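> call design_seq(struct)
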């Protein structure tokens, strides 16, 4: 909670902080929303999305990965839910390999995230990336039987 309060105070002190939330990236191409999602900071992610709106949800890294991809792959369901509530289209964005957040969730065995995207947002359960592999293929390759059975 301390980090969030610091962000709020910074924004109050200097309005230019708002643009840097979206534009400033680290050496991997991750912005504040990507990092907050990766670290499972629900309150900080929610605040960034509130400040920046839908653009925070679909803002891509250099390789096209969004916060939705990160939440799905990491199994951060509460963050995934708040991101998709703000912008449902986020589940359909593809990275530079043609991979969707649904594919990421299947690949990492994140069934709860996969179910949310398919059942609540109506994402394609059998997403296929550019190399031709589907969610079923990558779940099986990763040994995620529970995901294969659900798919």
């Amino acid at each position: 909670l301390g980090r969030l309060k610091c962000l709020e105070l910074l924004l109050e002190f200097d309005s230019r902080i708002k643009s840097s939330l979206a534009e400033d990236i680290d050496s991997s191409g991750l912005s504040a929303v990507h990092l907050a999602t990766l670290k499972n900071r629900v309150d900080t992610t929610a605040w960034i999305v509130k400040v920046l709106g839908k653009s925070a949800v679909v803002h891509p890294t250099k390789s096209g990965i969004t916060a939705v991809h990160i939440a799905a792959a990491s199994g951060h369901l509460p963050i995934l839910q708040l991101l998709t509530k703000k912008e449902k289209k986020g589940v359909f964005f593809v990275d530079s390999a043609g991979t969707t957040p649904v594919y990421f969730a299947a690949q990492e065995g994140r069934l709860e995230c996969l179910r949310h995207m398919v059942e609540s947002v109506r994402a394609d359960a059998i997403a296929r990336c550019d190399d031709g592999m589907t969610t079923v293929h990558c779940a099986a390759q990763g040994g995620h039987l529970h995901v294969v059975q659900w798919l």
